[in-house]
């Protein structure tokens, strides 16, 4: 932990280089009954002064000891999928009630397996053009891996200007899917800034990535051998049967009210209500409601339509691989958790374990099962460079969406330094 003098110097340094930040505490959300049983803050941080680009974020404080528990900066994949996915589908304290859409506002309930049981989490809409993050000039939407990692690290430093109480908390950079490629790049930028004395001495402890891309060929090349090895996989892992979109021009008053309060330009098709991905479409109708935008304090005239994953903006893949960033961090002793759903065909765990092995670290604890509630929850292996790899049994892409209880147990054990 930093000394009081060093902390003051760090804050002064940050304020000299800070940009605009706005934030609001959210106590109630449309669709959720009663006050939120956890602390939620939303806001913006400017990350591109030239083009007027601002990242939107959701902060959920730890439900345990927020002043002591780790701070996670959570990035969502895509690229350009909203961090709201992490908040309501994966590791956050909210989830949608899975019910067939009838024109009324989708309902939210508390998620008892939220990672806020052990950590403070910043869910960050990034890069620009994701979720509610925006740029006032179109040129600001130009992005690639390098730009994304630069702006994400800039966001974190500027966010801490207004949240100095978190500077001494253990810091982890985290994310899943395509963001698994960006996470070690952000962590390495923070480490470089610390080494060069250009940034405050943040309490960086490591990083964690789930179902992660690397940019290596192994991500793609492992798909066919994995599928062959699995034999038969349920159709639910690949696609959902579509049905016609229900009309919002219904004569029921509830549907008329909702239509008048929506910002929807291109409504997505509804999958079958029994499909796991049905909640993705519910999120679309929830986040585009005007009452919701007001509750979240979304700036007017910034994002016309919230899209779960924005595929309309170009995104060159650059650099091709992130393996060197893993090596740089692990060689310095930073902790890393890499986890995969063992039923993920998008980024098969068999390919992930291959690049993990290519880091050439000796094994501390060999391949073994780990358990939750007396049942096998997956398999894990621990390496001498503070790297832990784990599979989550029966989980797809991404693991917490399928096995929330098991993934909470996993993160609780790993954060505490215990074996899975």
Any overview of this molecule?
One of its GO terms (molecular function) is serine-type carboxypeptidase activity. The protein has 420 residues and is of the alpha/beta class. The protein folds into 2 domains: 4-232 and 315-338 and 355-368 and 385-390, Alpha/Beta hydrolase fold, catalytic domain (Rossmann fold); 235-278, no CATH class. The protein is built from 13 helices and 16 strands.
Short description:
This protein has 420 residues and is an alpha/beta fold. It is built from 13 helices and 16 strands. It folds into 2 domains: 4-232 and 315-338 and 355-368 and 385-390, Alpha/Beta hydrolase fold, catalytic domain (Rossmann fold); 235-278, no CATH class.
Number of strands: 16
Secondary-structure-derived class: alpha/beta
CATH homologous group name of the largest domain: Alpha/Beta hydrolase fold, catalytic domain
Series of H and E elements: HEEEEHEEEEHEHEHHEHEHHHEHEEEHH
Q: What CATH architecture of the largest domain would you give? A: 3-Layer(aba) Sandwich
CATH topology description of the largest domain: Rossmann fold
Shape: globular
| Separate helix tally | 13
Signal peptide: 1-22
GO molecular function, one term: acyltransferase activity, transferring groups other than amino-acyl groups
Pfam family, one: Peptidase_S10
Family: Belongs to the peptidase S10 family.
Give me the secondary-structure topology.
Blueprint lengths: L3 H13 L4 E6 L13 E9 L4 E8 L10 E5 L8 H7 L3 E3 L11 E3 L9 E6 L8 E2 L9 H15 L11 E6 L2 H18 L7 E7 L7 H4 L1 H8 L11 E2 L9 H8 L9 E2 L6 H10 L2 H7 L26 H9 L3 E7 L7 H9 L5 E10 L2 E9 L3 E6 L6 H4 L1 H13 L4
Parallel strand pairs: 4-7, 4-9, 9-10, 10-13, 13-16
Antiparallel strand pairs: 1-2, 2-3, 3-7, 3-8, 5-6, 11-12, 14-15, 15-16
Helix pairs in contact: 3-4, 4-10
């Amino acid at each position: 932990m930093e000394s009081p003098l060093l902390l003051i110097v760090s804050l002064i340094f940050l304020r000299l280089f800070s940009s605009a930040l706005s934030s609001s505490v959210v106590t109630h959300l449309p669709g959720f009954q009663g006050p939120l049983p956890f602390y939620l803050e939303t806001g913006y941080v400017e990350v591109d002064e030239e083009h007027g680009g601002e990242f939107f974020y959701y902060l959920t404080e730890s439900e345990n000891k927020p002043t002591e528990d780790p701070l996670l900066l959570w990035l969502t994949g895509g690229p350009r999928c909203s961090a709201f996915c992490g908040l309501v589908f994966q590791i956050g304290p909210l989830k949608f009630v899975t019910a067939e859409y009838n024109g009324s506002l989708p309902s939210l309930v508390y998620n008892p397996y939220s990672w806020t049981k052990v950590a403070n989490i910043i869910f960050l809409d990034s890069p620009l053009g994701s979720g509610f993050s925006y740029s006032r000039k179109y040129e600001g939407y130009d992005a690639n891996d390098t730009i994304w990692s630069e702006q994400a690290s800039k966001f974190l430093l500027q966010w801490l200007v207004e949240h100095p109480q978190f500077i001494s908390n253990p810091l982890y950079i985290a994310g899943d899917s395509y963001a698994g490629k960006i996470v070690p790049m952000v962590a390495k930028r923070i480490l470089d800034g610390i080494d060069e004395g250009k940034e405050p001495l943040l309490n960086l402890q490591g990083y964690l990535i789930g179902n992660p891309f690397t940019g290596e060929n192994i991500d793609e090349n492992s798909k066919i051998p994995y599928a062959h090895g699995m034999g038969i996989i349920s159709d639910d892992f690949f696609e959902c049967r579509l049905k016609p979109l229900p009309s919002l021009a219904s004569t029921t008053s509830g549907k008329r009210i909702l239509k008048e309060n929506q910002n929807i330009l291109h409504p997505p098709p509804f999958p079958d209500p029994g499909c796991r991905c049905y909640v993705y479409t519910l999120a679309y109708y929830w986040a585009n409601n005007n009452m919701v935008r007001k509750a979240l304090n979304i700036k007017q005239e910034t994002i016309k339509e919230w899209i779960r994953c924005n595929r309309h903006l170009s995104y060159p893949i650059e650099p091709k691989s992130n393996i060197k960033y893993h090596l740089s961090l692990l060689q310095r002793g930073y902790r890393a958790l890499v986890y995969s759903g063992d039923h993920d065909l998008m980024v098969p765990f068999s390919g992930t374990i291959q690049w993990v092995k290519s880091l050439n670290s000796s094994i501390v604890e060999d391949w073994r099962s780990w358990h939750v509630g007396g049942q096998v929850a997956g398999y894990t292996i621990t390496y001498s460079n503070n790297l832990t790899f784990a599979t989550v049994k029966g989980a797809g892409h991404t693991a917490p969406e399928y096995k929330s209880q098991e993934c909470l147990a996993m993160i609780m054990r790993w954060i505490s330094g215990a074996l899975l």
